[in-house]
C-alpha cells in the first residue's frame, strides 16, 4: 500500500500558526486532539462525503472520528441537507424562530423517553451549563458532583483549578467521584446533605487515555433512587453518546430516567445545534434561568435536526452503528493478534476505545495509529472513535487490511520513539 | 393603515408552551426580549429577505431588530449565501477544518486594526469567556472589572448573584464600575493593585431600558494608558457593535487599541460563528487555554464570514448603516414632535436606542412601539435597534409614515395600560 504525505497540510499549518494561536486549535488540532506525529497526519480537509474525508493533499480517509461525533448518517447526508436547503430559501437567523422550532420541540419530546420538554442552544457546553443552572435554580443548592475524568465542555467549572485561565472559585462548588462508585456517591451525598444540586455524568465512562467502562450492573438504578431520595437533579451528559446508543436517550439504553439530558453532536448530523431535554418538575426552573444566544433559534440547524432525528429513528441508527462497530472492532483485535499485539477494545461498539496493552508509553499504539492513518484509515490515538451509518462492509474490509499492514509495520519498524523524523 | 393580527403566532405559541420552557425563550421571546404585549407582536417568522421578515400570519415587517444584530447586509444576502452554497458541496463539519480557516484568520488580522491573531468559536459568550480566561492565564490574576449594566452573554459570571441558577462563587471575582467613570476605574485599580486580570467593556454603553451613552471625550485613551500601566488586559466586547461602527473594530472607531476584541453577530450575516482577535503579547496565553467545541471549525460559517467581511469592507457598511440610521432617527424624532411626544434618540445611529421622555412607566413608549409593530415596522421596546444595509429610502419613508400614525394612535387611545386586552 502507498503511504500518504502531507506537504499542503504542512504549508497551511505554517500559515495558520501566524494568525491563529496554536494554528489549528482545540480537539481538532495536533496538541489536544490527536496527540499525533504531524508527519503522519493531515491537518486540513478539502471535502467530505459519506464515511470519508479528503485532505488538502488529495488523500482519502475512512473517517472514524466523524468530526468527533456529529457525523452519524454520513457526511452531506442527502435527506438532512435537503431539509436545510428548503429552509435556507426562507431564511435562517431571523428576529423570530419559525414554526419548525415547535416541531422540533415536539419531536424531541416524542423521541427521547425522559423528555417532557426541550430547549435548544449551540454548544454541548451550553447544555451542561444550562443543566447545572436549572438544577441550582430548582433546588436552591450550589454543589455539583462530577465523575473524575469526565468531560462536560470547556467552561471553567468543567476544568481543573490551576489549568490556564481557571480560578479556584470556578470549581469551588464541584465534588468528584469515580465513575461507577455508588458507595462513594452515597458517601458524598451524606457528607453534603442538602447542599448538592446536581449529579452530572456521562452515561458510561469514556475519558481520553483510559479504557472506557460501562456502568456496573444495577448502578444507574441505584443512582436514580439515591438522587430522587436526596432531591438531587440527575443530569446525563449525552453530548457524545446521544443517539449512538439509543435514539430514546442513553438513559433509556441503560434502563433509567434522567431529570435532565444533554444532546449535541449527532443531533443534526453536523449542523450547529444542541439540546437539553427535561422533566416536568424542572420546567419552571428552566424557564427562570436567563439563557440565550444570538444564533440559538436559527432555522437551518433546526430543520437539519428534524430531518436527522426522523431518519435516525426510521433506520434505528444505534442498532446499525452498533453492529458495524462490533464487526469492525472484533476484526481489529484479530488483526492485532496475528502480529502478536493485544489490542484491547472497550466502551460501546458504536463509539469504541482501543489501545495496545503492554505498551507503557503508548508508543506502539501511537505508531500503529499513525501507520493506519497514512494508509487512509483515520483514527486518533487516545480518544474514543465513532461509527457512522454510511460506513460500508467494503470500508470495514479495507480498514481491516490497513490495520493488518499497520501492525506488520509496527512489528518491523518499532514504536513511535524509534522512528526517525516522527 | 391596516393593523395586523396574529392568530397563527398565538396558536403556535400555545403549542410551543407545552414542549419548550417559556415557549419562545431568551431574547427572542416575549419575556426577556421585547417586553411586548403579545396581542400586538408576532412570535414566529415564516421567511425573511433583505430588510424584511414575514410572520406566520403572512404579515410583512421592516425589521429593525435584524435578528438582534446578525443581519447587517440584508437577510439572505446573495454573496454570503453563494459562498456558503459553494462550501456546502464540499462539506461543513468535518474532522478537520478547511484552508478557509486560515484565509479567515488572515482576513481578520488584515481587517481589524488591533488584531495580531484571531480565534473562532460559536456564541458571543464563548468569546467573552475565552477573553477572560486568556487574561487570567496571561496575568496570573483573577479579578475582572465590568461596567454596571453591561451585557457579555449568559454564562454565570456575566449575571448577578441571586439570579436563578447563579451562585456567589460565580461572581466572586467581579468588580463593577459605571461606564465612562475613569476616576472610579482608577480607584478600583488602585484598591486591587496586582489582582485585576481584565477590564471588559462594550465600546459604548448600550444597556436595555436606559439611554445609551457614548464614551466621554478622552475616556478610552486614558483607560488604555491605565490598563497598560497596571498590566491589565483591556478586552472590548464588540459582539453587538462590531462592524456597525467601523469594520476595523469599534476600538479603532473611538481611537484606541484593545488587547482583546470579541466579535459575533454581524461577522457572518447570521451564519453561526464568533471570533476573538488579540495582540501578540497574549498569543501564548490564548494557546494555553483549553477551549474548543464540536462545531467550532465548521466550514460553512467560515465561508460566510469571509464573504461577509469582504463585502462589509468593500461597501463601507458602517458608513452606510450610520447614514441610514441618522436619516431614520431624525425623522422619528420629528414625527414624535408633531404629536407632542419627545422621542429621545441615543447611542450610535447604526444601532440607536429610543424612548419617549416624561413617560415614567414607559407606558406611552410601549404603546407607540406596539402601534408601529402592528402596522409593519418591527421595533422592540427597551433594547437598542439595528440598521442593515438592505434598508432602502422607501423603507425609511414607510417607517416614518407608520411612526406618525402610531404617535397619533397613542395620542388618541392612550398608553398601554389604558388598552383593553393588551
Largest interface: A-B, 108 and 108 residues
- Please give the CATH class of the largest domain in chain A: Alpha Beta
What is the CATH superfamily label of the largest domain in chain A?
Type I PLP-dependent aspartate aminotransferase-like (Major domain)
Instruction: Count the beta strands of chain A.
Output: 13
- Provide the helix percentage of chain A: 25-40%
Largest sheet of chain A: 7 strands, mixed
Which term fits the overall shape of chain A? globular
Distance between the termini of chain A: 20 Å
Query: Order of SSEs of chain A, N→C?
Result: HHEEEHHEHEEHEHEHEEHHHEEHEH
CATH topology of the largest domain in chain A: Aspartate Aminotransferase, domain 2
Q: What is the CATH architecture term of the largest domain in chain A?
A: 3-Layer(aba) Sandwich
**Structural domain tally of chain A:** 2
Numbering strands along the chain, what is their spatial order in the largest sheet of chain A?
4-10-9-8-7-5-6
**Arithmetic mean of pLDDT of chain A:** 96
Question: What's a quick, concise take on this entry?
Answer:
Two copies of one chain form a homodimer. Helix content of chain A is 38%, strand content 14%. By secondary structure, chain A is α/β, with parallel strands linked by helices.
Amino acid at each position: 500500500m502507498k503511504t500518504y504525505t502531507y506537504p499542503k497540510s504542512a504549508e497551511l499549518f505554517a500559515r495558520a500558526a501566524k494568525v491563529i494561536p496554536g494554528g489549528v486549535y482545540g480537539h481538532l488540532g495536533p496538541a489536544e486532539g490527536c496527540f499525533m506525529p504531524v508527519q503522519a497526519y493531515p491537518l486540513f480537509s478539502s471535502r467530505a462525503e459519506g464515511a470519508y474525508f479528503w485532505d488538502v493533499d488529495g488523500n482519502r480517509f475512512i473517517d472514524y472520528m466523524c468530526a468527533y461525533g456529529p457525523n452519524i448518517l454520513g457526511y452531506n447526508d442527502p435527506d438532512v441537507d435537503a431539509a436545510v436547503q428548503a429552509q435556507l430559501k426562507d431564511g435562517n437567523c431571523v428576529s423570530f424562530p419559525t414554526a419548525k422550532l415547535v416541531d422540533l420541540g415536539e419531536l424531541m419530546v416524542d423521541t427521547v423517553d425522559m423528555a417532557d420538554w426541550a430547549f435548544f442552544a449551540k454548544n454541548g457546553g451550553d447544555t451542561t451549563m444550562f443543566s447545572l443552572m436549572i438544577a441550582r435554580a430548582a433546588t436552591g443548592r450550589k454543589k455539583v458532583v462530577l465523575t473524575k475524568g469526565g468531560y462536560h465542555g470547556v467552561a471553567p467549572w468543567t476544568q481543573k483549578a490551576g489549568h490556564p485561565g481557571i480560578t479556584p472559585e470556578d470549581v469551588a462548588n464541584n465534588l468528584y467521584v469515580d465513575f461507577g462508585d455508588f458507595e462513594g456517591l452515597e458517601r458524598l451525598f451524606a457528607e453534603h446533605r442538602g447542599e448538592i444540586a446536581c449529579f452530572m455524568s456521562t452515561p458510561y465512562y469514556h475519558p481520553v487515555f483510559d479504557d472506557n467502562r460501562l456502568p456496573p450492573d444495577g448502578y444507574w438504578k441505584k443512582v436514580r433512587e439515591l438522587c430522587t431520595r436526596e432531591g438531587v437533579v440527575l443530569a446525563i451528559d449525552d453530548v457524545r453518546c446521544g443517539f449512538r446508543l439509543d435514539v430514546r436517550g442513553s438513559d433509556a439504553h441503560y434502563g433509567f430516567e434522567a431529570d435532565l439530558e444533554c444532546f449535541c453532536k449527532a443531533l443534526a448530523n453536523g449542523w450547529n445545534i444542541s439540546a437539553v431535554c427535561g422533566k416536568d418538575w424542572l420546567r419552571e426552573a428552566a424557564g427562570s434561568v436567563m439563557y440565550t444566544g444570538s444564533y440559538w433559534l436559527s432555522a437551518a440547524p433546526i430543520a437539519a435536526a428534524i430531518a436527522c432525528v426522523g431518519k435516525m429513528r426510521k433506520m434505528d441508527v444505534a442498532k446499525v452503528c452498533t453492529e458495524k462497530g462490533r464487526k469492525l472492532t472484533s476484526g481489529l483485535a484479530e488483526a492485532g493478534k496475528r502480529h502478536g499485539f493485544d489490542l484491547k477494545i472497550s466502551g460501546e461498539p458504536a463509539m469504541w476505545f482501543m489501545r495496545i496493552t503492554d505498551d507503557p508509553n503508548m508508543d506502539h499504539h501511537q505508531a500503529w495509529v499513525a501507520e493506519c492513518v497514512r494508509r487512509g484509515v483515520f483514527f486518533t490515538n487516545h480518544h474514543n472513535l465513532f461509527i457512522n451509518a454510511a460506513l460500508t462492509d467494503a470500508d470495514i474490509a479495507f480498514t481491516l487490511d490497513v490495520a493488518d499492514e499497520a501492525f506488520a509495520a509496527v512489528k518491523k519498524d518499532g514504536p513511535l520513539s524509534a522512528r526517525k523524523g516522527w
